[in-house]
């Protein structure tokens, strides 16, 4: 149980993949102009990370160490293709909106990172949970960024107009630079909010 | 680990795992192939109904029924097109078009009246323009400008405030707007020749 809580805390803030490990940045910049896109992307990543961590962990004692990367890539891409097919078949509009980014989940560093750092050394169940929570941590950051980008850039939330017709859209927010500004602010704010144990020591020494 | 230095085991392991995953993926692909095809066909049908100005019903089956009852598809060697037929004869023709946008290709459907002098409607089925800027070609206000647009003389689509302007461009998306007008003007010129050759004029 303590293990589960530890993994949960790590994924959500202590070791959050986006603002702490600075992983998965490319997709957090690309799909966060709309909340719906971010949500589907996040859920997709949770699915892929959880199942690939589970599979990698399941096979960890049979996998020869020197070909493990090859095995991980194979496992990850298989789950991504499953997700892509699922979106195409049941959510065609979403599949169109996310375009190439679904396929690019394969290259999302979070999945490989978790497979290497966690699933390789832990039991399948907890690895599955770790993947799920890391994906959730990623999703939350994405939604947070998308909330501001969509609200300021389109005046809408999940496609529903909330700011009325008098609102002038901040075009900058939906352009790629808007994502850089938002992500920078998020990383800075979370750095202040959840100080790292090592950094806290340093900061104390300076003061 | 004794296995580490062996060559045969890693190779067999990789082959086995690849075969397993290929098998799983192939089955899923086979299973979803039909649904994906249906979804794609449905999206196309909706787009064609839209350009003819026919309201598509909410249910998917009803859309397909309506489509088959009103629209006839004609395939020629160079160009496929769709005919909208009612009890009083042919109402118009729809053509798929595609061309170069700012970031990638833009494709869609355009419907023209039987004398090829009026646009009945325009729709974009795929594009990769900047969301919020060029991506706004997808919005109704932009597409609605083309409903019943007079295109009797070339250049067919000209943006305001030019003297002969007939359509508003999108602010902040000059290049996308330009691409759209170029694609449409080139395409309609082609269609004019095509229609004469096929004898589609009344």
Automatic annotation (TrEMBL), chain A:
Subcellular localization(s) per the UniProt record: Endomembrane system
Principal subcellular localization: membrane
Highest taxon above the source species: Bacteria
Transmembrane segments: 39-59, 71-91, 97-113, 125-147, 167-189
Membrane topology: Multi-pass membrane protein
Catalytic activity, EC: 1.6.5.-
InterPro entries: NqrDE/RnfAE
GO molecular function, one term: oxidoreductase activity
Keywords attached to this entry: Membrane, Oxidoreductase, Translocase, Transmembrane, Transmembrane helix, Transport
EC top class named in words: oxidoreductase
Full protein name: Na+-transporting NADH:ubiquinone oxidoreductase subunit D
Organismal lineage: Bacteria, Bacillati, Bacillota, Clostridia, Eubacteriales
TrEMBL record, chain B:
Keywords, in A-Z order: Cell inner membrane, Cell membrane, Flavoprotein, FMN, Ion transport, Membrane, NAD, Oxidoreductase, Phosphoprotein, Sodium, Sodium transport, Translocase, Transmembrane, Transmembrane helix, Transport, Ubiquinone
Keyword Ligase listed: no
The protein's Enzyme Commission number: 1.6.5.-
FMN-binding domain residues: 101-191
Transmembrane domains' residue ranges: 7-28
Enzymatic class: oxidoreductase
Gene Ontology terms, MF aspect: oxidoreductase activity
UniProt name for this protein: Na+-transporting NADH:ubiquinone oxidoreductase subunit C
Phylogenetic placement of the source organism: Bacteria, Bacillati, Bacillota, Clostridia, Eubacteriales
């Amino acid at each position: 149980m303590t293990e589960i809580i530890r993994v949960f805390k790590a994924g959500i803030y202590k070791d959050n993949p986006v603002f702490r490990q600075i992983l998965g940045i490319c997709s957090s910049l690309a799909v966060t102009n709309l909340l719906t896109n971010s949500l589907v992307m996040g859920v997709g990543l949770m699915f892929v990370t959880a199942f690939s961590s589970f599979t990698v962990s399941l096979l960890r004692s049979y996998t020869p160490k020197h070909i493990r990367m090859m095995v991980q890539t194979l496992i990850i891409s298989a789950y991504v293709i499953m997700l892509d097919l699922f979106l195409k078949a049941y959510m065609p509009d979403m599949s169109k909106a996310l375009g190439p980014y679904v396929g690019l989940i394969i290259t999302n560093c979070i999945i490989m990172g978790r497979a290497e750092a966690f699933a390789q050394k832990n039991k399948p169940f907890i690895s599955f949970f770790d993947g799920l929570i890391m994906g959730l941590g990623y999703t939350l950051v994405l939604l947070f960024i998308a909330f501001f980008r969509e609200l300021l850039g389109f005046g809408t939330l999940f496609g529903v107009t909330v700011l009325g017709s008098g609102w002038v859209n901040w075009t900058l927010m939906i352009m790629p630079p808007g994502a850089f500004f938002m992500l920078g602010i998020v990383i800075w704010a979370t750095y202040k909010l959840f100080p790292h144990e090592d950094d806290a020591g340093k900061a104390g020494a300076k003061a | 680990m004794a296995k580490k230095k062996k060559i045969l085991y890693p190779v067999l392991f990789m082959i086995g795992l690849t075969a397993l995953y290929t098998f799983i993926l192939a089955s899923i692909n086979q299973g979803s192939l039909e649904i994906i095809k249906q979804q794609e066909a449905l999206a196309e049908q909706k787009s064609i109904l839209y350009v003819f100005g026919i309201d598509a019903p909410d249910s998917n089956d009803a859309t397909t029924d309506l489509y088959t009852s009103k629209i006839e598809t004609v395939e020629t060697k160079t160009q496929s097109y769709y005919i909208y037929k009612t009890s009083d004869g042919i109402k118009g023709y729809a053509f798929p078009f595609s061309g170069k946008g700012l970031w990638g290709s833009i494709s869609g459907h355009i419907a023209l009246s039987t004398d090829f002098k009026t646009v009945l409607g325009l729709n974009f089925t795929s594009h990769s323009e900047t969301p919020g800027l060029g991506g706004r070609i997808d919005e109704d206000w932009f597409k609605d400008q083309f409903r019943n647009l007079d295109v009797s003389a070339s250049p067919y689509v000209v943006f305001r405030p030019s003297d002969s302007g007939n359509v508003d461009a999108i602010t902040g998306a000059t290049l996308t707007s330009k691409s759209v007008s170029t694609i449409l003007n080139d395409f309609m010129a082609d269609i004019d020749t095509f229609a004469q050759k096929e004898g589609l004029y009344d």
